[in-house]
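User: Hi! I have a protein structure encoded as tokens and I'd like to know what sequence might fold into it. I'm fairly new to this, so please keep things simple.
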């Protein structure tokens, strides 16, 4: 059974930083590209960032480029999202995903003063 468990969310002021983590199990993590999605209140699911299985290639939503960094540690079966210079519009539930339909339970990120 695939399990994806996110952590690291919370309340942060604008301009602050958070680091999300996702521990994966139930599949061979190192063989799969992984992604972070987010869903803001009243909005649809949005792909934030993806990373190739080896970590060699990454991609980002335009609005987070230069602020967010995706990474992975295949030895630890863990996916990360470093989020810097956070903005109120980044407020959402963030999901670690093997695919759009295979996601964790999510972690809430709230950016507010």
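Assistant: Happy to help. Inverse folding works backwards from shape to sequence: for each of the 113 positions I chose a residue that suits the local structure. Here it is:
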């Amino acid at each position: 059974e695939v399990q994806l468990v996110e952590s690291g969310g919370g309340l942060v002021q604008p301009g602050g930083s958070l680091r999300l983590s996702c521990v994966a199990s139930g599949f061979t993590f190192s063989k799969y590209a992984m992604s972070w999605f987010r869903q803001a209140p009243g909005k649809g699911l949005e792909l934030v960032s993806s990373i190739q299985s080896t970590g060699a290639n990454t991609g980002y939503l335009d609005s987070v480029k230069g602020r967010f960094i995706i990474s992975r540690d295949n030895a630890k079966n863990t996916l990360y999202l470093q989020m810097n210079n956070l903005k109120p519009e980044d407020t959402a539930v963030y999901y670690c995903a093997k695919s759009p339909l295979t996601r964790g339970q999510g972690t809430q990120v709230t950016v507010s003063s």
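A useful reference point when you look it over: The mean pLDDT is 97. Feel free to ask if any position seems puzzling.
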